[in-house]
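debug: dumping io for the single-chain case to check the tokenizer round-trip. Nothing else runs in this session.
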Amino acid sequence: MASEAKTLKLNYKRTFLIGFAFFGILLLWQVYDSWCPTFLTDIFARRMYHISSAQLKAGDPDKILNVQWIVGIIMACDNLAALILLPIFGNLSDRTRTPIGKRMPFILTGTMVSAIAFPFIPLFFHYNNVAGMVIIMSIVLIFMMMYRNPAVALMPDITPKPLRAKANGIINIMGYLGGAFATVLGIFLKLSDYINVEDEARKLWIIEIPFIVASLLMVISAFVLFAAIKENKLAEELKEEMDLGEKMAAIENPVDDDAPMPKANRNMLLFILLAEFLWFMADNAIGTYIGNYVIYYLNSVSSATMILTIAGGAASVLGFAIAGSVADRIGRKWTICTGLFVTVAGMIVMCFVAPTGNVTGPNGEFSFPSILFIVWAIKGFGMALVHNCSFPMVVELCSSRRIGRFTGYYYAASMSAQTITPVLLGLVFKVTLLWRALPVYSTILFAFSLLVFMAFVKNIKAKKVGNLHGLEALDGD
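debug: decoded output
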């Protein structure tokens, strides 16, 4: 077995290039999640109360909470479509055979349509066109689902099973670099500078530029991926390594696509997906409503949300960088449990955060509670450990012929959570009229996901494998 271990070595250069798929995904989602819930809040405030959300915030702030359930429904409808489409595109890409590969046609088509449509979201919002805005949001989401599942499946397609945790950390770091581009734009082009002014003073370019830049960078990242990764060629070259990876997988029973899934493997899959469902319920609640939480509850400038994202992203990069090595030592289960425990600890602190009351902004905004930067860093680090190991655990349970399908299972769990949680939390806001419900809600769900994972998921370590180091890691394809 010692000789076998030396034959599996992670190629860092190729893994970074695959990461351009994640770069495009997180770039677009960071802009989408940071801007769209506030667009919806403002546009429905106009429809329901005939004034902007900025005027409503000053006159009757509880009504802002009262429209969050509608915002949640719109965001959930998008995720419901994703819940249906992700497994479909995963299965289709598994069965697709073209001269450029089985994943690349979906990646390129999804990228081009999404990139063309994306800048129309702020345009329709600016002109108060609810129907146009929601339709464009749906088009973007549908074609990003065409992109997302095949793009995510590309890494395990050409990475042997024991190396996938480290590879997943690298491509997630690339994804966070994509999110960082969007975050920097949000610092300089403040959404609150658009929202918190009278209608005639609103400048379209403030909200349009981030969407245009995101589209351009997403197209560039997709073409870098296309130029660098030749799917069919790599599939042939790596066949021996992939077969060896199957023998060294961290699973209780060997995978056989021609036989029923063993009970132990099936139970492992179901409990991983249940825990994933719960932590995505928690995390998506924070992601969906944090922009509104900062603007309408903390009454701070929207750029603070972007700095939060930078703090969380920097800590996430650290988490992704070390998660693979940590998993090699203690196993993927305990790496995920550690991440969830750290996240719960940070969220408990957030439950006690309140507006400062210190006016510092030009439009009467309060100073931002600095403790939240620490909370976000803690959460970012913890969830990096979780996300780094959870996806490899799912695709560990299938052969290379079904990676798209099992990627679909992974995203079905996450998207069903993201379908339910905006509506459920929106209703909680409507009943409680308390913004503090946001961190309490997420804390409870994170804690339940930790309990499920600790109690029901087994810790099975992969056999030891070798890794390239230093300049050697950058050689070859």
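debug: round-trip ok. The domain at 11-462 is CATH 1.20.1250.20 (Growth Hormone; Chain: A;).
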